[in-house]
Amino acid sequence: MRPQSAGTWLALPVVAALGALCLAPLAILFAYSFFSVDFVTISHDPSLKNYARILQSETYRGLIARAFGSGLLVAAITAVIGYPVAWFLAKRAGAAKTMLLTLLLVPLYSGDLLRIFAWRVLLGAEGAINRSLIWLGAIDAPLQGLLFSPLATHIALTYNYLPFMVIGLWLAFESLDDAWLEAAADLGAPGRDRFRRVTLPLTAPGLIAGGLMVFVMVVGDYLTPQLLGGASGVTVISAINDLFGTAFDWPLGSAIAWTMLAILMLCFGAGAVLIRRSSLVAEGA
């Protein structure tokens, strides 16, 4: 048997599992998005009513926009924090690099619920942050707006997904030749220009890849807004969950899910194009 044939046969179980466990459910979900609910039964007459409802509903449009807005915000925050951390790991950590990378990933070894409840302990009225501020005399009474707010949600989301951004940027910094920065410095370029014209273009593939990972996971996060957001914890993901549960409107839930998926696929396509272009710039350099 030829090596190519052997590889094909070995890949078949993986392809079959991918099709059965991933693609087939998505196809069923797509088909359901064209159905409708008639009292307590699902009508299988196809139509675009569910997608029209999404476009006409200010609530659903607002939830979808807020989800993608949160994704962009957290991706931007993790990028700002991740750049100096990734630079230090790649260029200055030395022998401690392995240990620091392990410490960076330690939070991911614990479950989502454990991390969320740890933030509830920190941000609560009787939590460590409020107690420390009162002890320092900065405040007289606990800050009530820390927990069960958009602030708490975005703090936890940033903490949860920062490692993914740092890893993407760290890999980009590992491949960055310091000679380019030294040449720019020799030519008199200040630090800001060196970052804007050398570091940023050459590390853009890692930034885009890390940003996409963070963006997608924030958009699809269900537990964090529910447990930390309070009244602001209603998200498009929780709306989909309700439609498939108590509301028994599977077709509308499927339509919203596929609308989200379509937007995410467009984002991935745009990200792939940008990564390709930035990689060509890096190779040309």
From TrEMBL:
The family database entries (Pfam families) matched by this protein are listed as: BPD_transp_1 (PF00528)
What GO CC terms are in its UniProt record? plasma membrane
Instruction: Name its cellular compartments.
Output: Cell membrane
Q: Which domain of life is it from?
A: Bacteria
State if Thylakoid is listed as a keyword.
Answer: no
Q: Which SUPFAM superfamilies match?
A: MetI-like (SSF161098)
Tell me where in this chain the ABC transmembrane type-1 domain is found: 64-271
Keywords from UniProt, A to Z, are: Cell membrane, Membrane, Transmembrane, Transmembrane helix, Transport
For biological process, the GO terms are: transmembrane transport
Give the stretches traversing the membrane: 12-35, 63-89, 101-122, 151-173, 198-219, 255-275
Q: How does it sit in the membrane?
A: Multi-pass membrane protein
What family name appears in the similarity comment?
Answer: Belongs to the binding-protein-dependent transport system permease family. CysTW subfamily.
Name used for this protein in its record: Spermidine/putrescine transport system permease protein
Naturally occurring in which organism (per UniProt): Rhodovulum visakhapatnamense
